[in-house]
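Appendix B. Raw example, untouched.
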Amino acid sequence: MKIFFYEAFEEEAHALRHYLGPRIKAGFTWQTIQEYGEICPPAPIISIRTQSILPLSWATKVDGILTRSTGYDHIKTYIKKSKLNIPCGRLPLYCSRAVAEQTMLLWMFLLRKLKQQTIHFADFNRDGLTGQECEHKTLLVVGVGNIGYEVVRIGKGLGMKVLGVDIVEKHPSVSYVSIEEGLSKADIIVCAMNLTSDNTAYFNYQLLKNAKPGTLFLNIARGEQSPSTDLLRLLDEGHLGGIALDVFNNERELAVSLRGGRKSDDREVQATLSLAKRPNVILTPHNAFNTIEAVDRKADHSIQQINHFLKYGKFLWPVPVD
């Protein structure tokens, strides 16, 4: 086969087969590389998302690597460790709207106390269920890239006051501020940054203590940027009013642990599971990208990448080289 797709769940695998057609032979699994258990790469081109760990022994045995994600820090780390110039591709354009729409749903979920509302349907009791409207609230978007800019657009459309934080201020319509000013004003904070070595654990306890009490915090970017142990502490102290996460620190360990039904001793995993039990927390399984439209674009762009690589020996959208 020419390519093997890891972490391809049912809907995505179906769309990938549609765009592949009969010409290119491919293999599929919903599992990560570690769960699937291959010792050698099953094809010369390997495609993963973010939870697979590429074995270093594969570096000399593959022709190319395609990550079906907008983020690519995990691929850059692998290339650095392997010390080889392996052609690598990414998908920067497929899911911005999908993730931004789910981000809006998550902050509305928290504002309107929907988790508590569903619980109280059993006794039809409305005590303690009075929520808030989002109009005129201040939304702080940290990382105004493709996804972050869509979040900004949605927030403005809802009548919110929207502020942005980014080292590159490329959108004239965005009101950019420093992180310090943004935290002092925000009612809702959205992490939409790409992950780098400089912003790992960016939203830590010390930083978020500078936010207003009762602020809502959402991360739809990368879990490494917001340690769950710190978020749990801030929630327990009553400093954060609510938390919504679609991505998680130590996500590989969390996902494999939950799918396998086994207990993890990892502190971040344990903190994430504690957060899941709180009435003012909503956790989703790294699924914000997952709409019919985005999955179709993702499959289309993936096969565009593969066809381009097979023809030219390089990817149409390569992983940037430092």
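End of appendix B.
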